[in-house]
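Supplementary notes for students who missed Thursday's class. We covered one full example, reproduced here. Read the sequence, then the structure, then the short commentary at the end.
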Amino acid sequence: MRKIIVSEHVTLDGFVAGSNGEMDWIQLDDEMFDLVNEFTIKADIALYGRITYEMMEAYWPAAADQPNATKHDVDHSNWYNKSEKVVLSKTMKDVKRDKTNFISDNAATEIERIKNQGDKNILVFGSPSVVHLLTQHNLVDEYWLFVNPVILGEGIPMFEGLSNKTSLKLVTSKIFPCNVVGLNYQVKK
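Structure (token representation):
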């Protein structure tokens, strides 16, 4: 069975984006990119909400072809192009794209069905509404939270609308050179 792994940048006060979706506070470095590459090696599906999907689709398909492409750009672009994308969207339900499955109804049931097929992981990058849904339905197996050294005071929360307690086990932690702390939690089932 597949594992669903959520990889999310978060502020110290628990936000994944500013009130208007701004993410200019996110700090990155090469060690973090290397870790993300390890995630993608073990995954063949990317799960997104519409907004994140449109952002990813605008950049990653051709990122490796750019003259100033970094190693991360090449690696992630290649993974993105060969992986299946699953997009949760009410507005894109009639859209057809290669290697992309749009889900507009019964999202939790459909994701659970996909999770039960195959053995490579499903990655969720960003997409807070998707993370909220997955967490509410106990579909997440692992969280990688990249805690950035910033307090926003308001924004889009990492966790919202939860009615059940979710117990976690800290598997590993890492301090990156850019002062971000990576926390890897497994969900206790």
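Commentary. Residues 50-63 form the longest helix (14 residues). The chain is about 30% helix and 30% strand. If anything here is unclear, bring it to office hours.
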